[in-house]
Design a protein that fits this description.
With about 130 residues, this protein is mainly beta. Helix content is about 10%, strand content about 50%. The protein contains one helix and 13 strands; from the N terminus they run E-E-E-E-E-E-E-H-E-E-E-E-E-E.
Length: about 130
């Protein structure tokens, strides 16, 4: 069986997000979407499933210093095509098909928690990011 993995999990636009940023990474690829689901009068489930699934991805970084956080944000920001919607183009490893897919995702609001700050640096708790496919 061919191995299609090219050494990365996510690419934002044309920029690979280094795996070293991740301490946790999970995906739910190709989630089935239903236009309707109901039980008939015999209790049998009647489902109408849409042909296209949607993927969600969640990951967390390690503790970051300010310069690392800025570099991390820059990778994501290069792929943003609509700032208001925070819509970005992402290539991701799809574990359901064992290959890469490229699609548009939006990024819900991200919380930044400061561990400490001094005159020259800020340290951040791990940053959690979610990607939800359009």
């Amino acid at each position: 069986m061919a191995n299609n993995y090219k050494g990365y999990l996510l690419k934002f636009g044309n920029k690979i997000m280094p795996n070293g940023y991740f301490t946790e990474y999970s995906s739910t690829p190709d989630q089935r979407l239903e236009s309707s689901a109901e039980r008939d009068n015999t209790g049998y489930l009647q489902r109408s499933t849409l042909p296209n699934g949607k993927t969600s991805i969640k990951f967390s970084t390690h503790i970051l210093h300010l310069n690392e956080k800025i570099a991390f944000q820059n990778i994501i920001n290069l792929s943003i095509e609509n700032e208001v919607q925070r819509k970005c183009l992402v290539t991701f490893w799809d574990d359901e098909i064992n290959n890469y897919k490229t699609s548009y995702f939006y990024i819900p609001d991200i919380e930044y928690q400061v561990i400490d700050a001094d005159e020259t640096d800020i340290r951040y708790n791990p940053i959690s990011v979610e990607l939800i496919e359009y």
